[in-house]
Write a structure and sequence with these properties.
Layout: H1 9-23, H2 30-42, H3 56-67, H4 72-79, H5 83-86, H6 91-98, H7 100-121, H8 124-141, H9 143-158, H10 165-185, H11 189-203, H12 205-239, E1 245-250, H13 253-263, E2 274-280, H14 283-296, E3 298-299, E4 305-306, E5 319-324, E6 330-337, H15 338-346, H16 350-354, H17 359-364, H18 366-377, H19 380-391, E7 397-401, E8 407-411, H20 416-423, H21 425-429, E9 431-436, E10 439-441, E11 453-457, H22 466-471, H23 475-486
Parallel strand pairs: 2-6
Antiparallel strand pairs: 1-2, 3-5, 4-5, 5-6, 7-8, 9-10, 9-11
Helix pairs in contact: 1-3, 2-4, 3-4, 3-9, 4-7, 4-9, 6-7, 7-8, 7-9, 8-9, 8-10, 8-19, 9-10, 9-11, 10-11, 11-12, 18-19, 18-23, 20-23
The structure holds manganese (II) ion.
Length: 487
């Protein structure tokens, strides 16, 4: 685990500028410089628990965000994120100097901090249901607020050693409970993994150290064998003229620990402590390479997953398969493109790099859209239920298909109306019945994984029965039917 070293503010400021220049080399740094100076002055008399000047913290938070290629306003807001709460600096001054957008972000972070603090005062059960919801509501306003907060928490976790033990446990628990699931939902795995690892270290120090020791031994024992397998694959791909990056990566300690617990096995019995990553140029090559590998090695049945055709809700894409190596050992292999690799690390942030404005990125996140729709039309009470079913960790998904083979991801137990509205709101509005696998069904029929659904539209009479609204599982179907009924 990496711990933050001690650096001077000027050193960190220069590093921040270097990071920003690496992706925005023509960027005017005036805004950043000013934010640094204002934050520096505002926090001048404060110190961190480590004894360092306080400004180190906002600088490190800004660096985390620059490494994720966030925009200027977000970085300026990160530098100022603790000023409204902890210093004399007022919102009007931020607005005057930095504009409404930076103020909006700083205020968002301040509000979010208060929300989380209030949440943590409630009892655990109540909290479980509500906190994610509130955080996500903030996300919907502007997801960058949540990302600043994640970076803030990451730096606080990196410097947790300076807190007393009870505080460490409290912060680490809060991290596992709130921040890890949020980072996961947004697909920002770089942050998710590090937060999880640090929280694990502080919550279960004995287990952490024991596992790390055991893993260290294991890694040195099996490294030659893994390298041999990686070389085999490199040769195979080279022989087919497919440029590829192949490497073996160990999973993080926490995910190994969780698997050991879940399977009630020992580390020795686990084979998937690492995965071989194959990074290719195009998605066609992914399928081609999968074919070559399944031809050269025996794949383990039941372990093949195509997250390229059926991406996860948080944008993760790859083909996963487990091959039996020549040494007769199962090896997990993950095949993806360079672009998918990027998305797999930064999730939603991937879209900042390739498009401008944050409206577009939000549109790509289906669940954010669902929440927006739901929020507009339903009472708070129902909203909790919705978020609970939508975001619970075990939320089951099914995939149904349009007549031309496009896959539509739906919550478990969805009905025909859910499917129809996922395709287009007008199609939903005009649904009269559907053909599911060729058989005629009513619009409230429950769909099963793999169903092929053809929506038959026409002139609908009367309003949507309330039972359909009740039975539907997506926010979009529910809110649109209610909208239609009001017309
Ligand atoms: Mn902070």
């Amino acid at each position: 685990m990496e711990k933050d070293k001690t650096y001077s503010p000027e050193y960190l400021y220069n590093e921040l500028i270097r990071e920003i220049r690496s992706y925005h080399f023509s960027e005017n740094m005036k805004l950043i410089r000013k934010a640094y100076e204002v934050a520096f002055a505002a926090h001048a008399t404060q110190k961190r628990k480590s004894g360092e000047p306080f400004i180190i913290h906002p600088l490190q938070v800004a660096i985390i965000l620059a490494k994720l290629h966030l925009d200027r306003e977000t970085i300026a807001a990160a530098l100022l994120h603790d000023t409204i709460e902890d210093t004399e600096l007022r919102g009007e001054m931020i607005k005057e100097e930095f504009g409404g957008e930076v103020l909006f972000l700083v205020e968002g972070v301040t509000k979010l901090r208060k929300t989380i603090r209030d949440e943590m005062e409630k009892d655990k059960q109540e909290r479980k249901e509500a906190s994610l919801r509130k955080l996500l509501l903030a996300t919907v306003e502007d997801v960058r607020v949540v990302i600043i907060k994640l970076a803030d928490r990451l730096h606080n976790m990196r410097t947790l050693e300076f807190q007393r033990r009870e505080k460490q446990i409290e912060i680490a628990e809060e991290t596992m409970e709130i921040y890890v699931p949020i980072a996961n939902k947004l697909g920002i795995f770089e942050i998710k993994k590090e937060l999880e690892e640090l929280a694990f270290y502080y919550l279960y120090p004995e287990e952490y150290k024991g596992l790390e020791q055991e893993l260290k031994e294991r890694k040195s024992e099996e490294s030659a064998e893994i390298q041999g397998f990686v070389e085999e694959i490199r040769r195979l791909l080279k022989g087919r003229n497919i440029p590829a990056k192949v490497r073996a990566l160990y999973k993080n300690n926490y995910s190994i620990y969780q698997k050991i617990k879940k399977r009630e096995c020992s580390l020795k019995e686990m084979y998937d402590t690492y995965a071989v990553n194959i990074i290719l140029e195009s998605f066609e090559q992914c399928y081609l390479v999968m074919g070559y590998l399944h031809n050269a090695y025996n794949p383990l049945p039941g372990r093949f997953k195509d997250f390229i055709a059926l991406p996860k809700g948080n944008l993760y894409q790859a083909i996963h398969t487990t091959l039996i190596s020549k040494k007769r050992k199962p090896v997990e292999v993950q095949i993806r493109t360079v672009e998918m690799e990027d998305t797999s690390q930064v999730g939603i942030l991937h879209y900042w790099k390739y498009s401008s404005g944050h409206g577009t990125q939000m549109e790509k996140m289906e669940w954010l859209k669902d929440i927006l729709d739901w929020q507009k039309d339903l009472a708070e009470e129902n909203f909790t239920d919705f978020v609970k079913t939508r975001l619970s960790r075990q939320d089951k998904k099914i995939f149904c298909f349009t007549p031309d083979g496009k896959s539509i991801e739906l919550p478990y137990d969805s009905i025909v109306m859910d499917f129809a509205y996922q395709i287009h709101s007008q199609i939903g509005d005009e649904t009269v019945f559907a053909l599911v696998n060729g058989e005629k069904v009513m619009p409230d029929a429950i769909l099963n994984n793999g169903d092929r659904v053809q929506i038959i539209t026409g002139q609908r009479k009367g309003s949507f029965p309330y039972a359909w609204i009740e039975k539907s599982k997506t926010a979009r179907a529910r809110s649109r039917m209610m909208q239609a009924n009001r017309r």
